[in-house]
Structure formats: structure tokens, C-alpha cells
Amino acid sequence: MEHALQVQILKELMQQLDEGRNIDAGVQYRMPTTAYVCPDMAAKEWTSFFQNHPQLIGLSRDLPEPGSFFTLDDFGTPVLATRDKAGKFHAFVNACRHRSVKVASEERGKRTLFMCPFHHWSYANTGDLISIPNEDHFGHIDKGCHGLLELPAVEQGGLLWVHPQVDGVLDVDDLLGDLGEELASYGMSAHTFVGETNIKMNLNWKFANDTFGETYHFGKLHQNTLGQLYYGNNLHLKEFGRHHRFVTANRGIDQIRTLPESEWNIANGTFVLYHLFPNIQILCDTRTVTLIRIYPDKDNPGRSTTRISFYFTPEVAERAVLKDAESFDPGKVYNFDERSSGDGIASLKASLEVFRSTVEEEDYLMGEMQQRAAESGQLKEIIFGRNEPALHHFHRNYREALGQPALKPIVCSD
């Protein structure tokens, strides 16, 4: 992010804090609770947003070197992501062309050859079919026409994008618009994957997404956790089509006030979050990135999975996960439960603790209560306040994308 923009946002937040006010959208909306429970709507979302929409699956250094791979199966298409010996990123349907069994079951690792466990058909990390055991018994197959099905895949600005359909259209420039250049400015191609955690709970994926859409609750729900670090009730919001930038002040902003503007660094006084439509949140600065991907349960609108992946620059990663006499290995997946006497391990533990103690045990617990109320059918609507414009933006966009009626504003006669 350009320094002039950092200063502009920091001044905006300082003024809100000084004046005791929050961002004001000037309107409140009624949100029908059926949106969180309706099976027909959930089916449309699954088709439109997850099966037929580009998916951000990770950062460049999820594939840190030639031979690296990882797998995922979150949006209806099982994916095998690889980096070949030339360094090119590929994504394939993780299914053997013989009888459709997964050719890779591990979450991640390093391998140049993938062998189906069923009949041992083997594929290169370029997707090429290499060998068919007992081919004289099976019958001739044209190997050149029976490699792994390749999905549209693009690596750009340190982000790995895939389209779940073999014939899908993937244009990252068109998808991100003006936001692409800003995201690229964080240098995310240098951020190393250091670990992840998953949260599976009984709340609709949109209730999970709503958690990241306002700061009104910080000093209430999080008064003993995140509220000790962040002021709450302040927000900078910038829309980029269906995406947005969301910034709120932490107590480090007080120290920034004492510095000349030339030394202001937004990372020291806020958190900067980017929402990428429909289901991605990215918390980032030049040293760390947290990628949050929220997926519905295809068969149950009342359940969702949130996958949180943590990335540090190599310098920060080494301090954060270094064991006593062990050199940092960018190709290794470090476990958050590992103990270390390294001074920096607290930063990694703190990242995980935030998501356990605040998101899982506070935010998503509220989400489960909301889900139960919505499923009861008694509460027909909830309200989005004037100080919650990020929620307005998200719900307006997905409803528009599904061809649904716009949210109803609340008028004085209500």
C-alpha cells in the first residue's frame, strides 16, 4: 500500500477516534433470516460462488519449490496443485483417468510423480500420464490424451487462483480490477506458509463471513480478548467492485500520533483486511499474511468450514518457528503445537490464539446462536446498522449476483 494512502487512512481513523464516532452509511437494512437457512438458496450459492467462480486456493509459497504440491477439496472439485521443474504452477482435478480415485491424498509435500493407489496408474506433476501397469492386459491407451484433467490456474501477485471447471474462465485482472495492484504491493510471493487451522461449526457460511464485517462488537463481545488491543467503533471502508478494503485502529495508533508522518506505518496502528468476493478474507502487511477461506457445507446450510492459513516473510518465519538448533525449512509444515525456546514462537502462537479465543469461541459461538434462531423460523429478519457498511456491501453483492431482491432499508415509519 502506498505511503500516502496509509497516512490518509490513519488520519481518517484518528479523526473518528477523536470525535467519538464510527463510519456512517446513512442507512439501515433489514436482512431476511431465510438467507441463512434456505436449502434452495444454498444450492444456488454452491453452484454460482463455489463451482462456477474462480477460487483463491493459497499463496505462491504454498508451493515453495519445484516438486511441491498440495491438495484441497473444499468447493466440489478435488484439486491437486503442483509446481513443475520449470517452476510453473498447475492445478488438476485430483482424480485418476482410469477409475477416478484420488492420485494424491496427503495435504501437502514434495513429489514429482503421483500414483493412483487403486491400479497404480502414474502421472507426472505436469499432469502427463506416465505409465499403466500391465498395459498389455488392460489394452492400449493413448497416454497423450489421458493425463490428469487440467484446471485453469493463474499465479499472480503472490496469489494462486484456480477455476473449478476445466472450461472455466479465469481472468485475475478482470476479477480484482483496481485492487490487484494494491494486493501485489504487499509482496505476498515472499511470504512462507507456516501453518494452518480449521474451524468447523454449526453456522451458515454467511454468518461466518459477517464476523469480519464490523467493529461494533469489539469492545463488547471481545472486551477481554481482542478488545484489549483494538479500539472498536471505528472503520475505514473502500469498495472495489464486489471486493473491499476494511481497516480498523488498534491501540498502536496512539504511538503513531507521536511520529512524523514520514514514519507512519499502517501495520503498527491497525489491521488491514481485504474481502475478496465471495468467501475470502485476507489480513496482510509486509511481514505477515493470514488467508481466511470460508466454505459452506454443500449438504447443510447450517454448517460451514473456515480454513485459516498463516504466512510470514522468511525472516519473521525463522524467528517464529525456529527450534533450538534447527534451521528453518521453507518446505516443511510446522505444527503450532510444537514447543520451542525460540523467542519468536509467541507471535505464531498469538496468531493461532486469536482465532481460537476470539473467532471460534466468541464470534462463531454467536454465529451458532444466530443460526439456531434463524432455523426456528420465528425471527424473520435481522438488522444491519448504519455503522456496518461492509455487511451492506457483501450482502448487496451476493444477492445481486443471485438475481435476488435488494435488501429493504428501514424508514422512520418502521
Q: Which SSEs are present, and which pair or pack?
A:
Elements: H1 3-19, E1 29-32, H2 39-51, E2 55-59, E3 68-72, E4 79-83, E5 89-93, E6 108-110, E7 113-115, E8 122-124, E9 129-131, H3 135-138, E10 153-156, E11 159-162, H4 172-176, H5 179-184, E12 192-201, H6 205-210, H7 218-221, E13 236-240, E14 243-249, H8 253-256, E15 270-276, E16 280-284, E17 288-297, E18 300-312, H9 314-321, H10 345-376, E19 381-384, H11 389-401, E20 408-409
Antiparallel strand pairs: 1-19, 1-20, 2-11, 3-4, 3-6, 4-5, 7-8, 8-9, 10-11, 12-18, 13-14, 14-15, 15-16, 16-17, 17-18
What keywords describe this structure?
414 residues; alpha+beta; Naphthalene 1,2-dioxygenase Alpha Subunit, Chain A, domain 1; Rieske Iron-sulfur Protein; 7-stranded antiparallel sheet; 4-stranded antiparallel sheet; 11 helices; 20 strands; globular
Quick take:
The chain has about 425 residues and is an alpha+beta fold.
Structure, described:
- It is built from 11 helices and 20 strands.
- With 414 residues, it is α+β, with helices and mostly antiparallel strands.
- It folds into 2 domains: 3-52 and 173-409, Naphthalene 1,2-dioxygenase Alpha Subunit, Chain A, domain 1 (Alpha-Beta Complex); 55-169, 3-layer Sandwich (Rieske Iron-sulfur Protein).
- Strand 7 (113-115) and strand 8 form a beta hairpin.
- It is globular.
